[in-house]
Specification:
Chain B: One of its GO terms (molecular function) is ATP binding. The complex is a heterodimer of chains A (435) and B (261). Chain A contains ten helices and 19 strands. Chain A has 435 residues and is α/β, with parallel strands linked by helices. Chain A has one domain. In chain A, helix 5 packs across helix 6 and helix 8 packs across helix 9. In chain B, strands 6-7-8-3-9-10 form a six-stranded mixed β-sheet, with helices on both faces. In chain B, a hairpin with a 2-residue loop joins strand 9 and strand 10. The chains are: A alpha/beta (435), B alpha/beta (261). Bound molecules: adenosine-5'-triphosphate and magnesium ion (MG). Magnesium ion binds next to helix 1 of chain B.
Chain lengths: 435, 261
Amino acid sequence: MTVETKLPYDKDYINQFSQDRSEPEWMQVLRLKALELADTLEMPKPDKTKIGKWNFSHFKHSAQGEKISSLDNLPVEIQDFLDKENKSENLLIQRNHSVAYASLSNELKDKGVIFTDIFTALNEHEDLVKRYYMKDAVSVDEHRLTALHAALMNGGVFVYVPKNVQLEVPLQVIFWQEDPELAMFNHVLVVADDNSSLTYVENYISNNNEKQTVANIVTEVVAHNNAKISFGAVDNFAEGTTTYINRRGVAYRDASIDWALGQMNDGNTVSENVTHLVGDNSNSNAKAVSVGRGKQTQNFTAKIVHFGKQSEGYILQHGVMKDSASTIFNGIGKIEHGASKSNAEQESRVLMLSEKARGDANPILLIDEDDVTAGHAASVGRVDPLQLYYLMSRGITQKEAERLIIHGFLAPVVSQLPIESVKEQLTQVIERKVY
Amino acid sequence: MAGSTLEIKNLHVSIEDKEILKGVNLTIKGGEFHAVMGPNGTGKSTLASAIMGHPKYEVTEGSVLLDGEDVLEMEVDERARAGLFLGMQYPSEISGVTTSDFLRSSINARREEGDEIPLMKFIKEMDSALDYLEIDKNMAQRYLNEGFSGGEKKRNEILQLMMIKPEIAILDEIDSGLDIDALKVVSKGINKLRDENFGCLIITHYQRLLNYITPDVVHVMMQGRVVKSGGPELAQRLEAEGYDWIKEELGIEDETIEQNA
Ligand SMILES: Nc1ncnc2c1ncn2[C@@H]1O[C@H](COP(=O)(O)OP(=O)(O)OP(=O)(O)O)[C@@H](O)[C@H]1O
Ligand SMILES: [Mg+2]
């Protein structure tokens, strides 16, 4: 079985692309090497989902987006996501591949916080980016899509919080794919140095219902000793976008990485969210919710790997399936030898709203150490008739009762998102998708 | 105008093809408090569930009318909006839905679209009901019944009762699992609703509750029927003597529901 991978983008194109952005040489070298690898490596093989026929090669690689003079000039649908409470003082809007808007409070600048697009970071903070870019979290050579990502990376952000700096307000990024054919090869790199803490929230938005394109996104999140990262996301690519999104975290000693992912794409999607608990006493809460509708096929993997002693990992995945959508939820808790006194828990639940939908929850525990605790719960089912009865017995209509139950089912992530407007937007996206 | 009337006539109810209720007759009018007592497994909860429209119970014969309207033709939510309320023996847990959101939806379900209860007014009403029932304000923001203790669930049912203000309420063992103080508070809540527009059917095993909420009529259920009715003194006698004298009086050997009784 061979997959069509002939890309309209070759060595010369990539060289030029890199030069146009005055990238450091190592970046150019990395891209070219990745392009070669992309030819030889296999596609990833998400468990129980065949992606052989998915579109990963038809897309437009580069397009600019206009700057925004003031946030008031944004289309309402984008404005809705802004963090009004904090006056959007730490906000970056990437429109197609241009930075349309960027703001970081002076206070954070003074503390040495870096919050900028990836190309600026490559020029202004080259060493830092080089230190982390596809090193400790995701590797270029994992499979064809990671290699393609590295070769064609065309957007993204870099976040760095220095030692001992605590961020009180969230950093927010809106990735707005305005051009319906444009591919997002976004690279997001978030680094929290020792004893620091931050909250980061990103939104992916597109409107290409008919036009086909690709999103191939790699996100690397590194929490150094005793750092705390809270990462929230709402993915909302339209039907025409085929998405591969890889979000990976590395937590060192006493560090924590919490994920709250609203996975609301309308197109075919492979999403993996993996956290490596490298340090002793590190922990991660990985929560993700999703809604599948139409004919979309999705494959979600939430995985936490324990290396450090006394590391704690908790996975929660809740999915609602309607129409003839088909989704696989893989939950993997892995405890390596030596990670004694660790705890790996997971819960995967799928709520089926139609006969034709398909939803599978695969809980997996891989344990190589005796002195640990672990547990999993998985279920695939329909709306509980007794819950419906209870709500309806108070006068609530069946439709409204189902609505409450579904929103309640997806609440673990909604309630976790740190920005009120993003919470509201996710609630509305859920509302739109479910009804 | 004085309250609603709930008429239960010759009600037969089956669950999974087993007949549980075998002809129940009862009429509850606004202003009246009725108590239903009876040994375990004699059909009390079945009666309550069938009136509300629990999906598992099938009415095979008889009728239930609310102010002359056929309740059995209505969906569960329509029954509630028509004025019925059931405080459940085992209320469901609904994860992700706060008690407060649920209550607001319940109240708004009774109002026209565009005429939803103003948020501030709702919060004020809820706070005063919470105070009245001595419930911790945090409970309103907790997920409905999730992780609630037995007593908290019962208090929450009464909170809903007080805010929804139905015409006719059926309370199924609202006193079970309550400590003495909670029992007093819950009774206080129910008594507050007492007026000529509110009728109530209280299912209980204990005279204790009836010390706080004096019933106008007491019914005894056995074998899926109401076998005896009387005044408050009937409950006192049951408390003192148990059910044997009724069984003797009526010649009943096994009070539970027998397949071919
Ligand atoms: N799902 C069911 N399947 C089979 N039998 C059932 C079911 N639910 C109830 N029953 C039976 O119906 C009968 C009446 O039950 P019901 O709950 O109405 O009793 P009750 O009078 O409320 O008892 P208690 O005082 O213990 O609450 C019992 O024999 C019970 O076992
Ligand atoms: Mg009962």
